[in-house]
């Protein structure tokens, strides 16, 4: 008798994992501008292995009266007011993101989406602040649960820095492309899939049920 193929909605207690990275104009989610956001969803094959799936990526216009720290934009290399960025208003970006994720979450038959990020508290705080600032009521994201790939990488790979964790997992990482929300999200997604899939390959999931 063939076993039923594993489903994504069974893997994380009904949560739909969404890998997210943000680029910002500082560290304070309430006052500092959100400048770029990327999100990648995952899919599961018939063997229960995860791979990156759909991608959402936008540059964001700083919200009205947003603080912009000079050191932050020098670090990430973003000119917040450059027309060539093709940035959209924060309200439009966040509404589109929530709509996009709700659709895929429903397709996966999951109950709620959970943010997966490297140092997840930071990214989650900016996503939550932007959603609240724009008065979005139908957010797909759990308000406080998150999966932190920093902690997972420390456990599974003995590394906490994204580039070092990717190197340990033999995932190609171009340092010159780091601190782009899209690139960092892609690499975080690859890293998360690697760690979850390796755990399964070692016999960690699904848990063996006693007779």
Please summarize what this structure is.
With 211 residues, this protein is an alpha/beta fold. It is built from 7 helices and 6 strands. Helix 5 (149-157) crosses helix 7 (181-201).
Please, could you describe this protein's structure?
It is a single chain. Strands 4-3-2-1-5-6 form a 6-stranded mixed β-sheet, sandwiched between helices. It has helices at residues 8-11, 70-76, 90-107, 120-133, 149-157, 162-168, 181-201, and strands at residues 15-24, 34-44, 50-61, 88-89, 112-117, 141-148. The two termini are 17 Å apart. The mean pLDDT is 95. It is α/β, with parallel strands linked by helices. The chain is globular, with a radius of gyration of 18 Å. Helices cover 38% and strands 23% of the residues.
Keywords, separated by commas or semicolons:
211 residues, alpha/beta, six-stranded mixed β-sheet, 7 helices, 38% helix, 23% strand
Strand content: 15-25%
Structural class: alpha/beta
Treating each run of at least 4 consecutive H or I residues as one helix, how many helices?
7
General form: globular
Strand order of the largest sheet: 4-3-2-1-5-6
Report the radius of gyration as a whole number of Å.
Answer: 18 Å
Number of strands: 6
Helix and strand pattern: HEEEHEHEHEHHH
Task: Flag low-confidence runs.
Answer: none
Distance between the termini: 17 Å
**Overall mean pLDDT:** 95
The main sheet comes to:
6 strands, mixed
- Which bin fits the share of residues in helices? 25-40%
């Amino acid at each position: 008798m063939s076993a039923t193929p594993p489903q994504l909605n069974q893997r994380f207690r009904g949560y739909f994992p969404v890998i997210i990275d943000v680029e910002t104009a500082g560290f304070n989610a309430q006052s500092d501008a959100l400048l770029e956001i990327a999100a990648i969803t995952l899919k599961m094959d018939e063997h229960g292995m995860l791979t990156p799936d759909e991608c959402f990526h936008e540059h964001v216009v700083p919200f009205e009266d947003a603080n912009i720290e000079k050191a932050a934009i020098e670090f990430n290399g973003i000119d917040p007011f450059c027309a060539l960025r093709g940035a959209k208003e924060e309200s439009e970006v966040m509404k589109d993101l929530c709509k996009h994720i709700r659709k895929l979450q429903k397709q996966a038959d999951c109950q709620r989406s959970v943010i997966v990020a490297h140092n997840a508290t930071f990214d989650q705080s900016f996503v939550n602040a932007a959603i609240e600032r724009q008065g979005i009521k139908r957010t797909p994201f759990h308000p406080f649960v998150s999966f932190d790939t920093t902690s997972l990488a420390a456990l599974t790979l003995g590394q906490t820095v994204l580039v070092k964790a990717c190197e340990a997992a033999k995932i190609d990482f171009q340092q010159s492309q780091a601190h782009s929300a899209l690139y960092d999200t892609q690499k975080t997604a690859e890293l998360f899939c690697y760690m979850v899939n390796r755990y399964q390959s070692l016999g960690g999931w699904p848990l063996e049920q006693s007779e």
